[in-house]
Design a protein that fits this description.
Blueprint: E1 10-17, E2 22-23, E3 34-37, E4 45-46, E5 51-59, H1 62-82
Antiparallel strand pairs: 1-5, 2-4, 3-5
């Protein structure tokens, strides 16, 4: 019906790649608008340039979804940088 108001939900995903050989452990759990998928087992060595994980995001606009993916990517890459 014409009177119904619906809010669109935009879904997005981003695959993150290892900037260098990385021993994966303790990646972030995610947030209210994003979560991780395809996460390797803790202690797994990911070679440089190989996929580390996938971020799945939701928002109410395309721009909002991009922003969520960017913030989540920064969060994951910061965590990877802290793993030595």
């Amino acid at each position: 019906p014409l009177g119904d108001q619906t809010t669109a939900t935009i879904h997005g995903k981003a695959v993150l790649y290892a900037p260098r050989a990385t021993l994966v452990s303790g990646l972030p759990e995610g947030g209210t608008s994003w979560r991780l998928a395809d996460v390797p087992q803790p202690g797994h060595l990911v070679d440089q340039g190989r996929p580390v994980c996938t971020i799945l995001a939701t928002a109410t606009s395309l721009e909002g979804c991009r922003n969520v993916l960017e913030r989540a990517s920064e969060n994951v890459y910061q965590k990877l940088a802290s793993i030595e």
